[in-house]
Amino acid sequence: MNISVIGAGYVGLVSAVCFAELGHTVIGVDNNPEKLLALDEGKVPIHENLLPELLQRHLGHRLTFSSSISHAVRESDVIFITVGTPQSATGHADLGYVEAVTREIAKHITSMKLIVEKSTVPVRTSDAIRRTMTLNGASPRLFSVASNPEFLREGSAVTDFLYPDRIVIGVEDSFSEERLREIYSPLCDGSYYRREDLIPGCGASAAHFIVTNTNSAELIKHTSNAFLAMKISFMNAIANIAERVGGDVDQIREGVGADRRIGTSFLNAGIGYGGSCFPKDVLAFRAVAREVGYDFDLLDAVMRINKDQRHQFLRKVRDALWTLRDKRIAVFGLAFKAGTDDVRESPAIEIVEALVNEGCLITAYDPVAMPRALSELGLRVGENTVRMASDPYIAAEDVDAVLILTEWNEFASLDLPRLHSQMRLPVVIDGRNLYRPEVMEAAGFVYYSVGRAAVFPLGRLNAMPELLIDEAACLSHQAG
Ligand code: NAD
Ligand code: UDX
């Protein structure tokens, strides 16, 4: 099949490369010349596992890049739209990029095409695409519009794309269904999984292919993201209760998640969800519901708990360090989650900004997200309040506390004695629960985490007169 994918960002680039991997001929289109230049040289502009290898494999053969939508429309049977749908000032999804691309497609269409919205969009966007196509001169006989929401996660985008639980297509006619079935057939009939050069360790069960109408497909995407965000907020709320009464959120997760109706995934308490999807999609879904006359206020609670989770974390930093002005803090992790260099809506960046505003001096380390974080925090870095370090131990030199803000594996296997020896005070505040409290206590750290009691290694701390925490406070914390 000849496919074009318009918008070569996280979703578009992964989709384009993976469609080529499935045997299709693909044109990836973007209007960012720097991105195109890099891609043409085989350089992947984002950090995503396996993407460089697959780009190398297909670039110049089944996969090319272009800045021209007219070229893409001419050369392909199926056109996927994967441009951004960011949050607008009103909380709705900003569909300006989708509209611009639709108009451009309409101008160049001369034979039958299938247009597929893969960007995350509010329900009834496919109707708007159809209208816009016609208004801009495309004959309704020359196109169909379908929805094919994308469920990949950053950090595991390639394997999520090639080994999905399900593929959802929303269609209004058999032409669209047949084309999309053909495109995804290697993932649904198992033929892709039987190949020799499989990405190892992914299991090999064929994806469920789910066919709905376009409105349902659009709703499935918003529902999925809102539901997952709700699971995270629910567990963060439970973590707050557990902390106050001496419960342990890890044990609660295990006990609750063993019920197959609930499952353990997306029940990790932490500093709240971030990224370019959940925050904007929950807000946009709330706006959609309001517009159609339903008050989905459960989503308000999901968002409120999420925002509050950052404040709960900052409260712990204050508890541990008392005053914050001029305190030296090492931050481990800037990306919104592990496995990506994406810092969009990263809780870590928000926390760093809040601490800088309170006068802290930050030294940060992230395995891959520092360049993007630098541009996000540009001004602050210029003011010398945030420095980047080349490894976690250098970041921890002479600090009053280490904050763990992204769940990178690297931070879950630190050399604890070495870390301890680097720090001025052995205080670790872990927003991702990467360690068991008893392990940190044995290693001599004051350790705060999420949904579990803080630990204070009394014997060792008594030997450190400069530490701010007195024994009485420690005992009351341990009792709590
Ligand atoms: P992104 O910002 O990384 O990429 C969008 C790309 O579109 C950019 O490269 C931009 O240059 C390009 N673009 C914008 N206007 C264009 C135009 N007129 N012509 C050609 N290219 C144009 O966005 P993303 O993270 O890939 O998200 C894209 C969509 O997919 C969004 O709706 C998002 O909600 C959804 N989504 C994202 C993820 C994710 O993990 N990032 C997962 C599932 C769904
Ligand atoms: C999400 C959806 O999972 C994916 O299906 C959709 O296509 C795009 O949006 P992504 O944002 O890439 O994917 O990452 P995800 O793994 O969902 O994590 C989102 C945020 O939730 C991160 O900040 C992560 O740290 C946080 N999270 C996730 C938790 O706090 N606890 C969890 O249990 C899981």
TrEMBL record:
EC number: 1.1.1.22
Listed InterPro entries: 6-PGluconate_DH-like_C_sf, NAD(P)-bd_dom_sf, UDP-Glc/GDP-Man, UDP-Glc/GDP-Man_DH_C, UDP-Glc/GDP-Man_DH_C_sf, UDP-Glc/GDP-Man_DH_dimer, UDP-Glc/GDP-Man_DH_N, UDPglc_DH_bac
Binding residues annotated for NAD(+), in chain numbering: D30, K35, T85, T120, E154, K280, R344
Pathway(s) annotated for this protein in UniProt: Nucleotide-sugar biosynthesis; UDP-alpha-D-glucuronate biosynthesis; UDP-alpha-D-glucuronate from UDP-alpha-D-glucose: step 1/1
Residue ranges occupied by any UDP-glucose/GDP-mannose dehydrogenase C-terminal domain in the UniProt entry: 330-437
Catalytic activity: UDP-alpha-D-glucose + 2 NAD(+) + H2O = UDP-alpha-D-glucuronate + 2 NADH + 3 H(+)
Pfam family, one: UDPG_MGDP_dh
Active site per the UniProt annotation: C277
Binding-site list for substrate: F151, L152, R153, E154, K221, F266, L267, N268, A269, G270, G274, K337
GO biological process: polysaccharide biosynthetic process; UDP-glucuronate biosynthetic process
UniProtKB keywords: NAD, Oxidoreductase
One GO molecular-function entry: UDP-glucose 6-dehydrogenase activity
KW Coiled coil (keyword) present: no
Superkingdom of the organism of origin: Bacteria
Entry similarity comment: Belongs to the UDP-glucose/GDP-mannose dehydrogenase family.
UniProt-recorded name of the protein: UDP-glucose 6-dehydrogenase
Originating organism: Acidipila rosea
Lineage: Bacteria, Pseudomonadati, Acidobacteriota, Terriglobia, Terriglobales
